[in-house]
Amino acid sequence: MERGEELAIQPQGREFELRLAGRRSPGARAGWGELLRRGPAGTRRAGERQNQPAAGGPLPLVRMSKTSEHAHPRHEAFALVWALVPLSGRVGRALWLQSVEILDWKTKQQLCFLDKVEPCATISDIRLMFHKSYPKWYPARQSIRLDPKGKSLRDEEILQHLPVGTTATLYFKDLGPQIGWTMVFLTEYAGPLFIYFLFYFRMPFVYGLDDKITSSPHPVVNLACICHSFHYIKRLIETIFVHRFSHGTMPLRNIIKNCFYYWGFAAWLAYYINHPLYTPPSYGQKQINFAVIMFLICEAGNFSIHVALSDLRRDGSKIRKIPYPTKNPFTWLFFFVSCPNYTYEVGAWISFTIMTQCVPVGLFTFLCFIQMTVWAKDKHYTYVREFKDYPSLRMPIIPFLL
Hints:
- The chain is an alpha+beta fold and 402 residues long.
- 41% of the residues lie in helices and 14% in strands.
- It is built from 10 helices and 11 strands.
- The strands form 3 sheets. Strands 2-1-5-3-4 form a 5-stranded antiparallel sheet, with no helix packed on it. The protein has a 4-stranded mixed sheet with strand order 7-6-9-8.
- Helix 4 (181-200) packs antiparallel against helix 6 and helix 6 runs parallel beside helix 8.
- The longest helix has 28 residues, at 284-311.
- The protein is elongated and about 75 Å long.
């Protein structure tokens, strides 16, 4: 910046044009000797008493001129906050406050205008402010985004760190009624547990049998009931004591779809496994023993991964972190895949398919694999996008392949 040049802060509608801003430096004070203010009453010199601008009137034009020839060029950078010190505190504060305009994501109609919002306000704070204007849209059902078709902003994101001006334009989408994830999982997993028992005990209204016939002569049927029950009881325990959810809720309408999927398949599997005409696996006890061992290993691995992921958020933080293997050998699969919990989950259902040798179980396992592959790929690419040092050897769900 050369001698005689000026720093100007000019109102541009709701925003300000800043000609110079930089780091505060003690040596800069000697290089800037004159502060001029031009307002409705004319121009005033630095040191004179400043009048407050009229309510609703324009904010002042602030200039700072370099008068000392001895200031080092490195000291020309200075803080905008220091430049505003001679002005009244109320005016200086007004220059830093932001406004937030919230529009409907579909119609682009303005729903709310939040004035005098602190730049350090988070998206969570903005949700609460919006909720005061529209009580029916509580924070959990609000999707606040920068672009109408973009992704929702996270609660912890800070307003001043977003690519917006002094007036931030955000878009709102109603996510509909919400339900907590804990209740979602309890509902989804408790259903299959009890539905399976209806078929295992061969209730008369299921197969139309005489009350005297209440169990299957094949031991594998009893073993399948134990494994199936163990799987869902483990899921319920994890939901209550292990899982830490980054998102507190999910749309209520999704639980109907999820319950139809889990409950429906549980009934279909149980119907054929416990049917009076069911036949045991072709290779007999060897096939069953192999499947049981594989099932237990995968269940232990799945539980170990869930505990390791939970430990990443032990402090209650929702910030995403890279999961790494621990001393537990079951977590060493993290060396090769991003989502080993899905790998173990699919392995458990493959072993259950081998144990029962039942077509509906195989179809359910195949659909589980497709869905978990989609989830694993999404999480894997999120890790790669957010962390530059993410391990390059890892694949989403199958080591070295997928």
